[in-house]
Amino acid sequence: SSTMSFSEAEVQSARGAWEKIYVDAEDNGTTVLVRMFTEHPDTKSYFSHFTGMDSAEDMKQSDQVRGHGKRVFSAINDMVQHLDNSEAFLGIVNPLGKKHATELKIDPKNFRIICDIILQLMEEKFGGDCKASFEKVTNEICTHLNDAYKEAGW
């Protein structure tokens, strides 16, 4: 499987971009999930145990959605802290991918959807440079999650 190749400059600019959106991890994580659920309603089927999923407004208020949004952002934050250490990065990505593949049975295309919405939100809030400096990170995350799925026999 591919090893990561981030230059020191790429790591720094990616972390700078991420910090801007991670400051409000719960709100921004919630926004990302609500967009995913409204723009890709099929993704709601994986969260059938969540209540109050009828409207975007309900979702924004949902403690379950807010909690998961924060969890997603925390996981990405852990990855971002280890962009310069492939082994540590994969130590986070692989178990996460495996869990989503085997226990949760989430279609891996949803990771790309979430990453694209994060990039979109970055661009809206902080401009194209911010988005551009984080794009490579989302590609790595999705590539390695997909690798974990393959290893889990997806």
Automatic annotation (TrEMBL):
Q: Keywords of this protein's UniProt record, alphabetized?
A: Heme, Iron, Metal-binding, Oxygen transport, Transport
What the entry lists under SUPFAM superfamilies is as follows:
Globin-like
Per the entry, what this protein does is: Involved in oxygen transport from the lung to the various peripheral tissues.
- Designated gene of the protein: Cygb2
What protein family does this chain belong to?
Belongs to the globin family.
What is the protein's name according to its record? superoxide dismutase
User: Which EC class is this protein assigned?
Assistant: oxidoreductase
Question: What PROSITE patterns does the database record attribute to this sequence?
Answer: GLOBIN
Pfam families this protein is in? Globin
Keyword presence, Oxidoreductase: no
Task: Give the reaction(s) catalysed.
Answer: Fe(II)-heme b-[protein] + nitric oxide + O2 = Fe(III)-heme b-[protein] + nitrate; 2 superoxide + 2 H(+) = H2O2 + O2; H2O2 + AH2 = A + 2 H2O; Fe(III)-heme b-[protein] + nitric oxide + H2O = Fe(II)-heme b-[protein] + nitrite + 2 H(+)
Q: Which EC number(s) are documented for this chain? A: 1.15.1.1
